[in-house]
Design goal:
By secondary structure, the chain is mostly helical. The protein is built from 65 helices and no strands.
């Protein structure tokens, strides 16, 4: 088939001709021969489109494998049927793509195809196959929205850390159940964002959505539309829980769902609720900004009466509390007044102007602060409500009573008047009064330059009034008027008034042009044109109706060209998109850019020829890369514009001059506009003969060409073969070739990678690094492991070894198959064995990265790394030792996470090695063992990490008991006044206690009752009860709790359920122990007992704690039980039932302790 040559002058005409030829070929049932890339882009596209229409699958698959992204992109976009139709599922499936297509597709093509499949696949089962094929979690989650709801629910838990808002919304669109799963596990700081992103669920399942939000006490801000949906579907929910929703819903919208006669009752209902826990809500409710929405819903004649009684007259405010009967109107009005905090004068917004004017002026006459005065006057302005009579009254009052007022206060009042009223509605009488105020502020004074920021508002108002009333604007106002289109009046004025104001502004701007003698004058004229254009735009005028403006623009262009000035005119051209067509002929001069040239192709390509000088200047600019334009030339004007521009670029390239910018632009242009063969000739012509540059004899002209060819050859389509860039990527030329080297090798398909990556690995170190990186990215794990092993053996370069170790470590971390993980671990183990103490520090840092190592080899990895780090610390420089000790500490801490898999002897040696320096040594200055990184968490985990009681006791006696005995022996030792052994011992006790829940029960280990009892025996044997009552009582309670946990453990494996079942019984035991101690020692022992109990019940939830408090309050005659409950941390927080029990006790002592501990700020409630 002969190469296609499209008729037509413009881009649209050529495309029309192309579509015509394609339709004819389809009508004639033409077919395409086997795939072969042509130098003619149109021919290639034609064949691809025809093959896509004919559903020639083999041809399309061959296109996918070619390196020309123009053809690949067209084939992918035009063959959607290949993805959507079930009959082609044997091709579009993970296995076929991975085995048959991926090895032969360049990277960019594969990514594009992969994304297109994801966007168009409709079959949920096939989408699930693609999900399962992904090895990266971040990529896999992109497939989830296309999978079945059941599948999403099963897999979403693996992606809590990978969900972004876009995917989150799409997942929730599938099912609200996904919202429930994710929301319950999301971090709190994300919850508001997540909840707000899926407000559409209000229309899907409102009740479930709100139930979940209420459960976690996380409510997003609901706008008016969302509030409307809530109130329409579930109004009673909000009425009943208004204190929950008040700060989240749009109150103005909510108030519309209350009938006028229901408003007062609703407010009383809110008041009647318990205010102690929601005081802040009600204070907000009765502030002006919130309550005004409810007041406006009341009958008009009742609004002011209501606010007057509550906030102005403050009816019932002085009645003693004892005289108020709960539930009466007086009671509610008093409560509302107490909650409200807005100034009383704000509520006059609901009064008539006459009433507001009378009362507020009386307040003003008595004297108020400037701040209150200004706000009172603002209320009067708003009450005037554009009524000219009222405005006149207010202005007259102000002028008469404020003759000696400062300019600043006058400015403030006048500003509020102008903002709160419509100047264009003023009658002559009112205007004259306002003008009197202007005169008092000397607005018309020519000699006074007032710099107050609101003066511009005054001038605008004067201009508006004068113009619409056909009066002359004072010259002083005109002169001081800063440019402003007065757009805010466009929709306010009627047609006649608007035209007057527009014409005034337009004529004024048009008359301000000055003669242009210098370039600075041109700049000012350009700015003046922009002001006129803004005026036209803001007043909805069209530029074509104002020919004198267009003529002025052309005049400026001519003046600029005549004087060879360079001032930019693009701001005029781009001012409004629809106006650009009026400046089409001048567009290249005004805005020389790729976008303008592309526009010329659409409407008149000969424009490029008419402005050849400007185009030549644009073509050689190295700051502009016209890829889209050159691509259009190459495809649609291959024999004309493309040829001419290519010749121009070649001329600039070979021309000897000192302008590097021309060389850069020329090479980039040739990369884009030339087809593969002629560009390959240029690459071949300028490839370096030697790797080293002799800077004394080198031809700078040729070197510049080589430099830019090496940097930019990757921009060619299709990209040059790897051999082309390898000819440049050597010696001194590597620095130039690096961008192209990375881009070309990144884009290689797998088959090519296996051929060319070894060439990089045989190169010098500077290139070998990139070869290793490409091996990691492009080869499979087996092949890349082989490459890494060979390079490790052959290289002693520390940077090469660091890169190899890093990528091998990453391979191991992302491996999910156990057998492959073992193979990779063996490789890394060999690397560790051959490490020296002079490697790159990055390797040592990676050794401490244990948490992502596959679990089946993690223990071996940790033990190996720990052994090496010990040796490294001994042989390291003093300056590096602390860093390596910190890395080793991370390994020690992580051993706790995999204790079951570690060799017991290794753990015992580890504890014995570090127990002296981290437990029995003081660090000075009051510092002691730091639990998070010390040996304490490891020791606790070791003795608890067993399911056999005998083995646990063996570990206790072998490891923990000697440490306990030694610590108890040193109990009285101190340094610098600090009992460091006691402090470390308490850290150990705290850790073991916490690990009963978080380690033993959580991991289904043995309940350590026998061990805890042995510890209790040792404590009682070694410590004095008098000096250590809290510790001994604490452990006594801990043993009691553990007995109950062990009893429930066979049936219940969850800590929360275990403690929930046993909390009442534990509470009874605690009460019994307290009674015994009160009898044995003294009544006030409850204070020490409460301290011990607080430390134990920190393991329990609030509901379980409440059960224990209830046990202490079960015996009304045992007053110490009540006093202990009051003493406990947080015992009364949000627990009204408990408060009631305490306050109902007849003992004055109980009440006194209660008020002292839990209501220190009660006097501030009202």
């Amino acid at each position: 088939m002969a190469p296609l040559d499209l008729d037509g002058e413009t881009l649209g005409a050529k495309r029309k001709n192309y579509n015509k030829l394609l339709k004819e070929a389809i009508a004639n049932n033409e077919t395409v021969p086997s795939f072969k890339l042509s130098e003619n882009d149109v021919q290639n596209l034609f064949n691809v489109d025809l093959a896509c229409h004919n559903r020639d699958v083999n041809y399309i698959l061959d296109v996918f494998k070619c390196g020309d992204m123009l053809c690949v992109s067209r084939a992918i976009s035009q063959s959607t049927w290949l993805i959507t139709e079930q009959q082609y599922s044997n091709i579009i499936n993970p296995e076929y793509i991975q085995k048959e297509l991926y090895p032969h597709m360049c990277t960019k093509a594969y990514i594009k195809l992969h994304k297109n499949i994801r966007l168009n696949i409709k079959d949920e089962l096939r989408a699930e196959q693609f999900y399962l094929q992904e090895t990266k979690k971040t990529e896999a989650i992109k497939w989830l929205p296309y999978c079945s709801v059941t599948f999403i629910g099963n897999k979403i838990r693996e992606h809590f850390d990978h969900i972004n808002i876009r995917i989150w919304k799409r997942l929730c669109e599938r099912s609200i159940n996904i919202f429930e799963i994710v929301f319950e596990h999301s971090q709190r700081y994300k919850s508001h964002q997540y909840a707000h992103a899926v407000l559409f669920l209000l229309k899907v399942d409102l009740d479930k959505y709100l139930d979940l939000l209420e459960k976690d006490q996380i409510l997003p801000k609901f706008n008016d539309k969302a509030t409307h949906v809530i109130m329409k579907k579930s109004p009673q929910r909000v009425f009943d829980k208004f204190h929950v929703y008040m700060n989240s819903i749009d109150v103005a919208t909510f108030s519309k769902y209350l009938k006028p006669e229901e408003i007062f009752t609703f407010l009383c209902t809110q008041i009647n609720k318990d205010a102690n826990s929601t005081l802040h809500v009600y204070r907000s409710l009765f502030d002006y900004d919130t309550l005004k929405h409810f007041v406006r819903r009341m009958p008009k004649d009742e609004q002011f009466d209501f606010v007057k009684k509550v906030f102005i007259v403050k009816q019932n405010a002085d009645i003693p509390d004892d005289n108020l009967v709960e539930g009466t109107e007086a009671y509610f009005l008093r409560k509302m007044h107490n909650y409200g905090s807005s100034p009383s004068y704000l509520w006059y917004r609901f009064a008539t102007f006459e009433r507001a004017f009378e009362d507020i002026t009386q307040m003003l006459d008595k004297g108020v602060s400037h701040w209150d005065k200004n706000h009172m006057l603002k209320v009067l302005v708003l009450c005037a409500n554009n009524n000219m009579k009222h405005i006149y009254t207010l202005l007259d009052y102000y002028i008469e009573t404020n003759k000696n007022e400062s300019h600043s206060n006058k400015f403030h009042f006048t500003t509020e008047v102008l903002k709160g009223t419509s100047i264009y509605k003023y009658d002559e009488k009112t205007w004259n009064k306002l003008n009197e105020l202007f005169n008092s502020m000397m607005i018309y004074d020519e000699g006074l330059i007032n710099i107050h920021y609101n003066e511009c508002l005054f001038r605008e108002s004067i201009i508006i009034y004068k113009v619409i009333h056909d009066e002359k604007v004072p010259e002083v106002i005109e002169n001081r008027f800063q440019f402003n289109t007065l757009q805010k009046y466009v929709t306010k004025l009627n047609e006649e008034q608007g035209e007057k104001v527009f014409r005034y502004l337009y004529d004024r701007l048009l008359g301000q042009f000055k003669p242009i003698k210098e370039e600075v004058d041109l700049l000012e004229s350009v700015n003046q044109i922009k002001r006129i254009l803004k005026l036209l735009k803001d007043w909805n005028k069209e530029l074509q109706d104002y020919s004198n403006v267009l003529d002025k623009i052309k005049e400026l262009i001519k003046i600029r060209e005549t004087n060879s000035w360079k001032h930019d005119l693009s701001s005029i051209y781009n001012f409004k998109k629809s106006w650009r067509r009026l400046m089409f002929e001048e567009s290249i001069v005004m805005h020389p850019s790729e976008a303008v040239c592309l526009n010329a192709l659409k409407h008149d390509p000969r424009l490029l020829e008419r402005y050849n000088n400007e185009i030549q200047e644009l073509r050689v600019k190295d700051t502009i890369y016209m890829r889209k334009l050159l691509s259009k030339f190459r495809t649609f004007w291959s024999r004309t514009l493309a040829k001419n521009w290519a010749e121009a670029y070649l001329h600039d390239l070979i021309e000897r001059n000192d302008q590097d910018s021309k060389k850069k632009a020329s090479v980039r242009g040739l990369c884009t506009i030339l087809t593969q063969e002629p560009f390959s000739d240029i690459v071949e012509k300028y490839k370096p003969a030697q790797a080293k540059i002799d800077w004394n004899t080198v031809d700078d002209h040729v070197l510049n060409i080589q430099r830019f060819v090496a940097k930019n050859m990757h921009r060619a389509r299709p990209q040059p073969p790897p051999d082309s860039i390898l000819a440049y990527a050597k010696g001194d030329y590597l620095q130039f070739a690096l961008p192209s080297l990375i881009a070309i090798f990144y884009n290689l398909n797998i088959s090519q990678s296996k051929i060319y990556i070894p060439k990089l690995l045989d190169a010098p170190v500077s290139i070998q690094k990139h070869g290793i990186r490409f091996a990691y990215r492009k080869l499979n794990d087996k092949d890349s492991s082989t490459v890494f092993l060979n390079c490790w053996k052959s290289s002693k370069n520390v940077s090469i070894r660091a890169i190899i170790f890093k990528f091998t470590h990453e391979l191991l971390c992302k491996e999910t198959h156990p057998d492959r993980a073992v193979a990779l671990w063996e490789l890394i183990e060999m690397f560790i064995d051959s490490l020296t103490f002079g490697e790159d520090k990055k390797i040592y840092e990676l050794l401490a990265g244990v948490d992502k190592i596959p679990i089946n080899v993690r223990a071996n990895y940790l033990m190996k790394c720990y052994k090496f780090m010990n040796s490294l610390i001994v042989n390291a420089k003093e300056t590096d030792r602390d860093q390596y000790i910190a890395l080793r500490s991370n390994l020690i801490w992580h051993s706790r996470q995999i204790m079951e898999r570690l060799c017991p002897n290794f753990v015992v040696d580890l504890i014995e090695e570090h127990v002296d320096d981290t437990f029995f040594e003081s660090k000075g200055n009051g510092m002691h063992v730091y639990v998070a990184t010390g040996i304490v968490p490891v020791l606790s985990a070791y003795v608890l990490c067993t399911k056999d009681e005998n083995l646990q006791i063996q570990r206790y006696e072998q490891v923990l008991l000697p440490i306990l005995n030694r610590a108890l022996t040193m109990w009285e030792e101190s340094r610098d006044g600090h009992f460091y052994i006691r402090s470390n011992f308490m850290n150990l006790i705290n850790q073991i206690q916490t690990d009963l829940r978080d380690y033993a029960v959580e991991n289904n280990m043995n309940i350590p009752l026998k061990m805890f009892m042995n510890i209790q025996t040792e404590l009682h044997k070694s410590l004095s009860l008098t000096k250590n009552y809290v510790l001994l009582t604490r452990w006594k309670l801990m043993v009691a709790l553990t007995v109950l946990v062990e009893k429930a453990y066979p049936d219940l494996k969850d800590w929360m359920n275990i403690t929930k079942k046993n909390a009442p019984e534990f509470g009874k035991l605690c009460l019994q122990y307290l009674k015994e101690d009160v009898t044995t020692y003294m009544p006030c022992i409850y204070k020490l007992f409460s301290e011990a109990l607080n430390q134990v019940i920190s393991l329990l939830q609030d509901d379980e704690k409440k059960e224990i408090y209830d046990a202490f309050l079960s015996d009304e005659d045992f007053i110490q039980g009540y006093l202990l409950t009051i003493q406990m941390n947080g015992s009364l927080r949000n627990n009204e039932e408990l408060k009631e029990k305490l306050l109902s006790h007849p003992s004055v002592e109980v009440k006194m302790h209660y008020y002292d501990q839990h209501q220190p700020n009660s006097r501030y409630l009202f």
